[in-house]
Amino acid sequence: MMRFPTVLGNTLLITASAVAVLVLFGSLAAYPLARKTNRIYNFLYIYFIAGIMVPFQLAMVPLYRFVNALHLVNTYHGAVLIYSAINLPMAIFLYAGFLKATPRELEEAAWIDGCSRFRAFWVAVFPIVKPATATVAVLCSLSTWNDFIIPLLFLQDQDRRTITIELYMFVGEHVTNWSLLFPGMVLSVIPLLAAYLFLQKYIIKGIAAGSVKG
């Protein structure tokens, strides 16, 4: 029997938390990288973007040892931190590309009005990067929601299973419970489909700005 409310709640909690962390830290990290042009910031930008080319499987064993040493295995915040770290290079890439296309006059006007650099970013800059935020949210939600390896390794407790692990329980070597597998697959797709339909008008803008103007 599939415990759909439990696994759906686990998946929603991990996905929403990871997206929130990525939007917060991804935008803050990309802001100075997009505005500064000296060698240090250019090196840091390349350093972050290089993370896109490094596959997770390459660091899977040392990462598990590290997370286990911190006693974060079978914890929600451990999974959230892992997903955030894996998706952070993509978030920075998209935010930096979009921020490079935004006018500096917006934050300069906020500085004149007495805002600090931090407040100027949230008040004047962040609201106009909604396409990048929507793109980061959708892409990172897809990679987190549909992931199988990380929950299998780091969420071994039955009460912390995600949808992908729960669906896998219905697939056996000789017998597959199709009567539970197919409904579970349909139910697992509905939240992502709803999120995509709600944010679709921003996604193309965000990807285009992040890949072309960056």
Automatic annotation (TrEMBL):
Its main location: membrane. Keywords: Cell membrane, Membrane, Transmembrane, Transmembrane helix, Transport. InterPro entries: MetI-like, MetI-like_sf. Belongs to the binding-protein-dependent transport system permease family. It is found in: Cell membrane. The lineage of its organism: Bacteria, Bacillati, Bacillota, Bacilli, Bacillales. Residues 8-199 form the ABC transmembrane type-1 domain. The keyword Cell membrane applies. It is a multi-pass membrane protein. Coiled coil: none annotated. One of its GO terms (cellular component) is plasma membrane. It comes from Cohnella rhizosphaerae. GO terms for biological process: transmembrane transport. This is Carbohydrate ABC transporter permease. The chain crosses the membrane at residues 12-31, 43-64, 76-99, 120-145, 178-199.
